[in-house]
């Protein structure tokens, strides 16, 4: 990671996003203008696919990590792009018309959401449009040649299929890179890590979308356009499954966040402490290049790091702070880990909580997540909800005195960056 | 096979025999399976085999959505009745380690019969067994729908009959709603066979890949969802138990209230989503208790009004904690109002009768029942009969009679395992509370001020 990516100028923070949204806007307008000038080629297909794009946009869903996707809409756009013929009549629509149909469909599909006050995420919708447009501009010029290659649709489709597969894969790769760039900018993670995260998230859904898109294009060859909806059905099943998955993931995180607060309601720890420690830990973890699954464990552990207090007969008022005796703090960590390991599924989280008090220079180096929580927890104990710069600097100074012994110097470095960057370091 | 009752054995032999006869008869007629069909048949059989083998690879028992139905019905169109029977018969070879031979044999035979019968129906309805031409897709629709409408029920009936004869299935155990859901989803999977067949002329087996890939990924995602769900349930239970460790005697209370609430919900015929929601509401109903100062709960004798008010605040506190979670609104209402009474003398709002949300009326019964059937520091646990009598006595004044009746019926049917807490070890000081706000037999006494 270079210094430049670590400390981008504040003005450039959202530049990638602006660029993308701008590009999408220009594309949409240009597509619409060109289509209006040249007239709509094969209006029936355009309307059918546009309707499917709209339906897909209407049924968009949010995947873990606040990623908005619209698989059915994407597949419909893909199908319209890849279309070679409708029932034997060659499809001659140019790339600009594909862009126009996509833009129109997305707008129509987003309207009902807008009406109930749920605007689409601009960067996500822009990315969908730009990725689709890129493929359209690469593929549409080839379409007549490919259709001729199939012998008017009666011969072998292998060449056409091959070209479709290659170009779609390339488009998905570009999409992942764009998503990663946006993500890196948004949550300040390293680009390399973001690419891996996006790839992990996008691969299953991307493969489904690609398969269904090609299926839609082929289906229009053999069947009437009315069959389009039927051919989107396999993807509908996929979408239902992913929606359920995304739902439970979101509920899971909300529940851990909520129940971590019982220590605060019970008066065991200062109000907002676990939430602040978890935010600080997450930002520090990202700064250190942790990938998303590790970050999730870090977040759970940070939220629940004081939960062992619940098992103590006489809770320590104010929580297990840096000011408590190490023996007590260790006991709270141990009890917390015991509670968490009772779930039977969060073993690694339990391990992180157990080792959150271990010294960096101890006999066994604690896991990175535990080292991060140790530092973040100590910092929040000293500073609390206050946003006083001097107090923050004093707290960091105090932690730095333990660098190499108590605290991991690399973690302290990242923590310092995170705190200096934030306008008010531990704002709720 | 040994442990099968004899009717089941006879049935097994009959099914396998019928399948064998159908296949043999079909193969004996020379023109039924053409030479060029064998390649298609082989591909379809392979596909079917892969689909049949995947459920166990993924280890998702509840979600064994049968994608293989798609392949079997595509075979009906592409290679005819005998071909479909042959494709179905390959289920015998599916990669499922640990599946005993007689079950394999039955699977293969019943799929073969279903395939054959579906093929016959397809033919009778005017469907032609061949790779459908481009543009003649619509002619296929009617016969195919007929074939699918026969295939799926026949499959379910053959299978259910086996389970019933083997004594693993009782008629009253089959939830109708689940069955309908099952049926519809299987019919859906079957129709995907039409997509495969329809595109076969254009891209042959690639059509199957394009149709089935999203389905496989869907199944994978569904597996992930179930795994997360299990993990979530375990986590929420562990965290709730952590909240109640403070009081030695109430350990396990939340999980028992959760299961009792679910029992009532099931008894009154709630849908699966609401049942799940009330399970969580029952689990979380007392998280707000942590906000009640320990000294109030440990105090012997009467409470001051102020102290009682602190206890009465706990449903609100609980709601405050869990409000950020995406539950059904009903679940929140259940947590908020689980101490309301039918006569309006409960807290926190003093709602009465039908004003009290349904979830709250259910949790109130479950909550009181578990409290009565568990040991407390100031008394021993009551027996189930005593507790039921107490519920009945307060039915109408404190509890909703409908829920009490439903609960009594559910306990009669499924039994009840009261919370057993071993007597605290003598050498160890455990924390106990002097009162239980859930216990209807020992109401909290409040000093009348002035």
UniProtKB/TrEMBL annotation, chain A:
UniProt keywords (A-Z) are: Lipoprotein, Membrane, Transmembrane, Transmembrane helix
Q: What InterPro entries does its record include? A: Cyclic_di-GMP/3'3'-cGAMP_PDE, HD/PDEase_dom
Q: Which residues cross the membrane?
A: 98-117, 129-150, 156-182, 202-219, 225-242
Q: Does the keyword Iron apply?
A: no
Which PROSITE patterns does UniProt cross-reference here? PROKAR_LIPOPROTEIN
One matching Pfam family: HD_5
SUPFAM superfamilies referenced in this protein's UniProt entry, alphabetically: HD-domain/PDEase-like
Q: What is this protein called?
A: Lipoprotein
The source organism is: Sphaerisporangium rufum
TrEMBL record, chain B:
Q: So where does this one cross the membrane? A: 6-27, 39-58, 70-93, 105-123, 143-166, 178-200, 206-222
- Specify the HD-GYP domain's residue ranges: 228-423
Q: What InterPro entries would the database entry show?
A: HD/PDEase_dom, HD_GYP_dom
| Keyword field | Membrane, Transmembrane, Transmembrane helix
Classify the source by domain of life: Bacteria
Q: Does the keyword Membrane apply?
A: yes
Q: Which Gene3D superfamilies does the record cross-reference, listed alphabetically?
A: Hypothetical protein af1432 (1.10.3210.10)
Q: Which Pfam families match?
A: HD_5
* Alphabetized SMART domains for the sequence: HDc (SM00471)
Official protein name in the record? HD-GYP domain-containing protein
> What species does this protein belong to?
Sphaerisporangium rufum
């Amino acid at each position: 990671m270079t210094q430049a990516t670590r400390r981008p100028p504040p003005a450039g923070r959202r530049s990638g996003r602006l660029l993308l949204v701008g590009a999408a806007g220009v594309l949409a307008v240009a597509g619409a203008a060109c289509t209006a000038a040249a007239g709509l080629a094969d209006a029936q297909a355009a309307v059918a696919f546009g309707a499917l794009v709209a339906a897909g946009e209407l049924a968009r869903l949010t995947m873990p990590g606040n990623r908005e996707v619209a698989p059915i809409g994407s597949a419909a756009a893909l199908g319209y792009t890849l279309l070679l013929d409708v029932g034997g009549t060659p499809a001659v629509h140019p790339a600009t018309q594909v862009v126009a149909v996509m833009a129109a469909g997305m707008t129509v599909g987003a309207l009902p959401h807008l009406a109930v006050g749920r605007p689409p995420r601009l960067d996500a919708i822009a990315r969908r449009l730009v990725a689709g447009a890129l493929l359209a501009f690469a593929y549409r010029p080839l379409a007549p040649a490919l259709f001729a290659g199939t012998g008017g649709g009666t011969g072998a489709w292998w060449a056409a299929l091959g070209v479709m597969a290659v170009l779609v894969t390339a488009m998905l790769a570009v999409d992942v890179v764009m998503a990663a760039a946006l993500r890196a900018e948004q949550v300040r993670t390293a680009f390399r890590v973001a690419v891996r995260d996006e790839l992990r998230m996008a691969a299953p859904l991307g493969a489904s979308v690609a398969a269904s898109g090609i299926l839609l294009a082929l289906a229009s060859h053999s069947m009437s356009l009315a069959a389009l909806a039927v051919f989107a059905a396999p993807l509908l099943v996929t979408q239902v499954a992913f929606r359920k998955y995304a739902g439970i993931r979101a509920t899971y995180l909300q529940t851990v966040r909520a129940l971590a607060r019982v220590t605060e309601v019970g008066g065991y720890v200062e109000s907002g402490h676990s939430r602040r420690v978890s935010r600080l830990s997450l930002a520090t973890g990202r700064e250190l290049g942790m990938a998303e699954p590790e970050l999730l464990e870090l977040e759970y552990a940070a939220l629940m790091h004081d939960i062992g207090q619940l098992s103590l007969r006489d809770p320590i008022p104010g929580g297990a702070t840096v000011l408590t005796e190490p023996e007590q703090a260790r006991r709270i960590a141990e009890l917390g880990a015991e509670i968490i390991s009772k779930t039977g599924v969060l073993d690694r989280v339990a391990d992180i909580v157990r080792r959150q008090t271990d010294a960096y220079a101890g006999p066994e180096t604690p896991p990175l997540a535990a080292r991060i929580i140790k530092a973040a927890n100590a910092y929040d104990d000293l500073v609390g909800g206050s946003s006083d710069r001097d107090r923050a600097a004093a707290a960091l100074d105090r932690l730095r005195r333990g660098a190499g012994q108590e605290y991991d110097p690399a973690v302290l470095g990242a923590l310092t960056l995170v705190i200096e960057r934030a306008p008010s370091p531990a704002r709720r | 096979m040994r442990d099968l009752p004899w009717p089941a054995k006879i049935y097994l032999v009959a099914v396998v025999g019928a399948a064998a006869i159908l296949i043999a008869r079909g193969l004996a007629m020379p023109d039924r399976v053409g030479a060029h069909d064998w390649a298609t048949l082989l591909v379809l059989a392979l596909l079917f085999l892969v689909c049949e083998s995947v459920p166990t690879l993924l280890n998702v028992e509840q979600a064994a959505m049968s994608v293989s139905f798609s392949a079997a019905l595509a075979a009906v169109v592409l290679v005819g009745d005998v071909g479909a029977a042959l494709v179905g018969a390959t289920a015998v070879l599916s990669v499922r380690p640990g599946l005993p031979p007689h079950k394999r044999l039955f699977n293969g035979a019943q799929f073969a019969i279903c395939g054959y019968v579906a093929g016959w129906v397809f033919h009778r309805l005017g469907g032609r067994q061949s790779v459908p031409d481009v543009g003649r897709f619509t002619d296929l629709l009617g016969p195919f729908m007929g074939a699918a409408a026969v295939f799926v029920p026949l499959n379910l009936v053959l299978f259910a009959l086996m389970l019933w004869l083997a004594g693993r299935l009782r008629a009253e155990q089959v939830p109708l709603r689940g069955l309908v859901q099952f049926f519809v989803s299987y019919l859906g999977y079957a129709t995907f066979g039409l997509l495969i067949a329809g595109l076969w002329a254009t891209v042959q087996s690639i059509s199957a890949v394009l149709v089935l890939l999203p389905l496989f990924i869907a199944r994978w995602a569904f597996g992930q969802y179930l795994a997360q769900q299990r993990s979530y349930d375990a986590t929420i239970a562990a965290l709730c138990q952590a909240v109640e460790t403070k009081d030695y005697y109430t350990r396990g209370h939340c999980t028992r209230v959760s299961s009792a609430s679910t029992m009532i919900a099931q008894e009154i015929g709630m849908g699966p989503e609401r049942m799940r929601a009330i399970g969580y509401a029952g689990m979380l109903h007392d998280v707000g208790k942590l906000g009640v100062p320990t000294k109030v709960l440990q105090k012997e004798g009467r409470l001051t009004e102020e102290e009682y008010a602190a206890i009465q605040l706990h449903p609100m506190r609980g709601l405050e904690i869990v409000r950020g979670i995406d539950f059904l609104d009903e679940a929140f209402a259940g947590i908020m109002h689980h101490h309301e009474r039918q006569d309006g003398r409960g807290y926190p709002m003093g709602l009465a009768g039908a004003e009290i949300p349904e979830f709250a009326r259910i949790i109130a019964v479950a909550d009181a029942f578990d409290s009565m059937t568990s040991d407390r520091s100031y008394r021993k646990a009551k027996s189930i009969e005593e507790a039921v009598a107490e519920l009945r006595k307060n039915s109408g004044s404190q509890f909703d009679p409908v829920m009490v009746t439903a609960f009594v019926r559910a306990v009669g049917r499924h039994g009840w395992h009261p919370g057993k807490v071993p007597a605290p070890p003598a050498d160890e000081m455990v924390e106990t509370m002097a009162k239980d706000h859930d216990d209807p037999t020992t109401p909290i006494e409040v000093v009348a001020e002035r």
